Amino acid sequence: MFDIKIVFSTFIMVFLAELGDKTQLATMGFAAESKSMWSVFVGSALALCLSSALAVLAGAWLAKHVSPETVRLTAGGLFVVLGIWMLAFSGR
After folding, report:
1. Residue 20: predicted pLDDT
2. DSSP codes of every residue in 5-40
3. Which pLDDT score, from 0 to 100, does residue 72 have?
4. 69-71-72-77 Cα dihedral, nearest 10 degrees
5. What residue ranges do the domains of the chain occupy?
6. Chain centroid offset of residue 30 CA
7. Dihedral over alpha carbons 83, 23, 14, 12 (to 10 degrees)
8. CA 17 to CA 52: how far, in whole Å?
9. What angle do CA 39, 46, 13 make, to 5 degrees?
10. Is 76 helix (H, G, I), strand (E, B) or coil?
11. What are the pLDDT tens digits along the chain (92 aa)?
């Protein structure tokens, strides 16, 4: 039920993905404006926990209702479409 390898790999991937993203930048902004950095930390940590819980629930639901191949192809297709969209409209 609890696999330390999965914990470690998930931690590394999420940590690296979050570095420098808009959520982290927003949190830095809140901390810069706030008199209570610990309140900002707790709020940010709770938000990340809730969004992660929703992602895990959605992933569990997908695993029961959609084949892994369909999920992989759909996710890959969305990344390609978003990449093309960003390239096409980044200069405007």
Report:
1. 82
2. HHHHHHHHHHHHHHTTSHHHHHHHHHHHH-S-HHHH
3. 92
4. 120
5. 4-65
6. 19
7. 120
8. 13
9. 120
10. helix
11. 789 999 999 999 999 988 888 889 999 999 999 999 999 999 999 999 999 999 999 999 999 999 999 999 999 999 999 999 999 887 76
Compute the distance between CA of residue 66 and CA of residue 72 in angstroms, rounded to an integer: 10
**Vertex 75, ends 74 and 77: CA angle to 5°?**
65
pTM: 0.70
At 62, list the tokens.
Answer: 């997908």
Element (H, E) at 59: helix 37-65
Q: Where do we find the tokens 């808009």?
A: 22
Report the length, in residues, of the chain.
92
